[in-house]
Amino acid sequence: MLPIATYRTNLGADGSDQTLCASDRCVSIAAQRALYPDAVTDQWNHGLRRARKLLGRTNLRSRRAVASQFVNLQRRTAGKQPERTGVTVATVTWNSLPYLKVLIEAVHQFSDPTVELLVIDNHSTDGTKEFLEAQSEVRSVMLPMNIGHGLGLDIAMIQAKTEHVIALDVDAFPIVDTWLDSVLGPLSNGATVAGAHFHRSFIHPCFLAMRRRDFLDLGVTFAPIGIAPTFGSAPKRLFMDVGEALSHNVSLANGSKALHRVPLTSSQGPGVAGSVFGDVVYHNFYSTQGRPDLMAASEAMWQQAVATYLRPFDPASSA
After folding, report:
1. pTM (predicted TM-score)
2. What's the average pLDDT block by block, 10 residues per block, for the chain (319 residues)?
3. What is the DSSP letter of 56?
4. Cβ(211)–Cβ(164) under 8 Å?
């Protein structure tokens, strides 16, 4: 029997003329399945996985392309919109309602009442839309499709009406009432971007502050470059995470001192799950994506963090 690595699959339009080729001869899938059922099944499943992956990446690129044009159109008029002194806390969410409820509660507990909340919803289907419609103190933008985290943050910066904007991941939240000062102070002292830092040379948008005017004038974007590799593997092409290119371009424009890093002060692990930055903001990590074992571990950490850092409230009954 030929080794499975030598097979290649020719997929017919309706499945009737599918063939499996080995070396210089091709026979029908049905015949090969009868002769070598395990080999054919493995090859068939592998082909389906690859097809789904390629389709997903194609759809992602298409959504990014359409969304980028939409964002660029908004940028053209955003600079003419008036700003007022103040702070907007912005987050991008997709089917993460329990985390969103906690974020909103934590911002209320640890921030001045004048702080505005802005939620960019990436076409959630878990009740987020209905929840946000009932929140009179939260401004929201409902997107017609999931355009990704980075372009969602771009829309948040454009739609904000205040001088300063602070981005939080949906599974991050403040834990002390000095959290705003930890990033607004550095911005007042010359930094262009301030926030969480734990690896590579960029401020992670799980907790990132920036003047809206700087974002618009520099023409930067939170959008990632390339497609994220699978966990533990190296990217085949250039990849920069959400917000990474933004920090890189800000550094090129204004120098490395333009980035103020709020350091990682504690982390429960595995990885960076259950992290605290500057003793002011908690970020769960792995809540909505990542390896299954990391996501499972992070769920328990989330429950513990909410109980540890926030005054008692019932997220399930938040309306």
Report:
1. 0.79
2. 38 43 47 54 56 57 78 86 95 96 97 97 96 96 92 96 98 98 98 96 97 96 85 79 96 95 94 94 88 82 94 68
3. H
4. yes
Kindly list the structural domains of the chain, giving each domain's residue range(s) and its CATH number in brackets, ordered by start. Answer: 1-78 (no CATH), 85-317 (3.90.550.10)
Cα separation, 278 vs 262, in Å, equals: 5
At 155, the amino acid letter reads: I
Angle between helices 149-159 and 37-78 (to 10 degrees): 10
Q: How far is CA 240 from CA 27, 141, 226, 287, in A?
A: 44, 26, 7, 21
Asked if residue 106 lies in contact with residue 173, where contact means CB atoms within 8 angstroms, the answer is yes
Q: Who's near 169: CB < 8 A, 6+ residues apart?
A: 91, 205, 206, 207, 283
In the chain, which residue ranges form alpha helices assigned H by DSSP? 29-35, 37-78, 97-110, 128-133, 149-159, 181-188, 212-218, 244-254, 292-309
3-state secondary structure of 201: coil
Task: Mention every residue, 6+ apart, whose C-beta is less than 8 A from residue 24.
Answer: none
- Strands laid side by side in the 19-22 sheet: 7-10, 19-22, 25-28
Q: Are strands 162-168 and 84-93 parallel, antiparallel or unpaired?
A: parallel
